[in-house]
Amino acid sequence: MPELTADVVLRKIKSGEKVERADLRGLAMPKAMLEGVSFRRCDLDGANFEGARMAKAQLKNASLREAFLAGADLREANLENADLEGANLQGAILVGANLNRANLEGANLQGADLGGARLTHAQLDSAKLGGANLVAAQLSHADLSDADLSTAKLDEADLTSAILTDANLEEASLVNARMRDAQVEGVNIKNANLTGADAPALKGGPAAGLSKRYFGKGDVLRNAALEFDSGASVEIESLFEQCTIVLGDGTELVVGRSGVLSGCQIRGAGKITIHGKFVERESPGIAGVTQLVVSSGGSLVGAVEQPAELTRFAFEPGCMLRMKIQGKKDRPQERAAKGGRNR
Amino acid sequence: MNGRKTLVEEGTQFKGSLSSDCPIEVKGRVEGDLTAPALAVSTSGAVHGKVKVGEMKSQGELAGEFDADVVQLSGTVKDATIIRAKSLEVKLAPPNGKLQVVFGECELEVGSEQAAKEQAKEPAKEPPAAVKPPSVRPPDNGAPVESNGSAS
């Protein structure tokens, strides 16, 4: 039972009294008119404010864990440092609200309107933000790991240094979003709109945002033919023997320190980083890659055939190379195809 | 000898053998053999020939045979060039920027001979039971490709 009933709370509000630091757990005030009300530091865990009108409400440092705020109007409310873990804010209006340092872990914000909201340093890990409006929201340093932001609108949002690890941004709109220094490992950006976004980690390596394959240490693959889709990210810590690997456009292949590719061939417009070892079977062992990095401790024995637009190479001191670099050669099939076309 | 260097200035062409006890800086063009403790080739410089140096930094054009302990490379490496070094450094060019090095058809021999021999032998040891998918196309859902258990 709350310390005060809904009627008492309403009376206090009408008489201009402040309701602060009160134990109001489980308070039920759906659709109540609570504009500008102050619930600072109140314990409102499990309270029901469904559809309540709470514009400019003062909820700084309030505890609203598991509270029901679906459809509530909280525009320009002050929820700084509030604890909203597991709260239901589905369809809530939080335009211009202050949610800096708020805890929204696992909160349901599907379809919520957070346009221009301040969410710096907010905890939004595992939050459900599907379809939410976060246009021009301030999310710098926010933790959005594992959050669902599919179809969300994040145009002009500030996600500088935000943590987006394993977040789902599928079909999200990030037009002109600022994402510098954001952590984007494992983020899903399938069909996301990144037009004008300052997101070097996502744009420089599309693989960072897409599906990942990992071949663990101690595993062995022999005589395998592997094809990886465009944008995939592949990490090999295993032993591959006599394997043929085809990389889609932009696919990132990392041969880890324990990875050994012996007697293998790699084809396609991917990016390769070798921390381990690569030895070719037939020359050229690597063909058509757009980028090849051999780190210190990495080694490569074989020929590399560059595509027409040339490969971007990087070699770190300490790497071991026995390599030939070649230009693109017409293969018999290609020659035949060209001949066929010319006829 | 401190601070002294042999300079082949821009606009200068040198043909023949050049051996020096002090570092050589090439801003012009050298064709021939070159021996020195260090060689720096600037963006306007070109060295075509046989070179044996301790340290080489090149931002210009290289063609021929180059033996060095330490090499830092950018610029252009022409066709039929061999670079042998204990250590080679090439920095990665920005994604849409100019290439650090434009490599023609060339050979790179970097690291010790011993390491190369070990490398060639490396995969000979008998591995654990093999997984042998003759042809695997991984799923698109991010799941690991079939392997013998430790993939994650």
- Radius of gyration of chain A, in angstroms, nearest whole number: 27 Å
Largest sheet of chain A: 9 strands, parallel
What would you call the structural class of chain A?
A: mainly beta
Q: Note the overall shape of chain A.
A: elongated
Distance between the termini of chain A: 88 Å
What is the structural class of chain B?
Answer: mainly beta
- Integer count of domains of chain B: 1
Biggest sheet of chain B, in brief? 12 strands, parallel
The interface involving the most residues is between:
A-B, 53 and 54 residues
Oligomer: heterodimer
The end-to-end span of chain B amounts to 59 Å
Structure, explained:
The complex is a heterodimer of chains A (343) and B (152). By secondary structure, chain A is mainly beta. Chain A has a domain at 212-338. Chain A has helices at residues 6-14, 200-204, 332-342, and strands at 212-215, 220-222, 225-228, 233-236, 239-241, 244-247, 252-255, 260-267, 271-274, 277-280, 286-287, 291-294, 299-305, 312-315, 320-326. In chain A, strands 2, 3, 5, 6, 8, 10, 11, 13 and 15 form a nine-stranded parallel sheet that branches. In chain A, strands 1-4-7-9-12-14 form a six-stranded parallel sheet, with no helix packed on it. Chain B is 6% helix and 46% strand. The model of chain B is unreliable at 123-152 (pLDDT under 50). Classes of the chains: A mainly beta (343), B mainly beta (152). Strand 3 (225-228) of chain A pairs parallel with strand 13 (135-136) of chain B, so a sheet runs across the interface.
